[in-house]
Design brief:
mainly beta, 23 strands, 289 residues, Immunoglobulin-like, 8-stranded antiparallel sheet
Length: 289
Amino acid sequence: MAVALLGSFHESLAQVQYTDVDPDFVIDDEDDLLFLDIDGNDTDDFIFGIGALTYYIGTGSIEDKINGVAIAWSFQPQNAIIGETISHDYAIFAFASNYSDDKLIGEHNLWIEGLPNFAFICGNKYGGVYGGWLPFGQIGFWQDIQTDRFIGIRFQDGLDRTHYGWIRCDAPDSGRVLVIKDYAYETQAGVGIIAGDMGEPVGIQTENKLLFSLYPNPAQEWIEIRHYENEQLFADIRNLEGKLLLTQALQSGSANRLPVAELPVGTYVAVIRNETGEVKGKQVWVKSR
């Protein structure tokens, strides 16, 4: 039996608060429970464990059951995860989405909220007839072997402010085992976060090791971007749906000001790219008014 409560040992960099689950927490038994206090305020935000949900068809002689690793947020009804629900008769099954490390997590996502207040991550479906169970195979978005994938989360802090974050997991044996590795959240209330962002001082470092700065954040009239690369780069400003709103060429080593006064209040992404369209880095920022 393994039970863990995590919420300490944070590393605070930029606006992202990052926590490494060390050692990784493995859920492969019904007694394995992981309680996550994402922002370290002594309140459990999410719980991982093995779950099961059974519903009966018709007179009850035929049953359907899903069994597998699940995530719950019953203690905090305002919390939620990104996923989808499937209704069948009077039963509602919910499944956590499976995100890669380039996905933006924010208010635009499809959130499972309210009831049900838990969702399956790894799951297997069974059909029961007169006391016997037949396996119907894997179900959900974490089928087969999954490595370094992300669950998008939303939670409220002690002041009822909404924050967005991610939890990184492996699913080495879909429907049976889940490995929780680390998690992070954006400390600025209402600001989105890119899955996998661990809080590098200047946004997200790519394979090209581009370092750039964006100031101020939140912004009102303008944002200022600096970089020190020896190639022509551009800044694309996009909304959370990916629509391009503004493009400006950047001068290396200079303070490049981009006018944003006309943009509506909300969350945006600054995408730094070269002339061929290769993305060098990204930074989420907020237009405050």
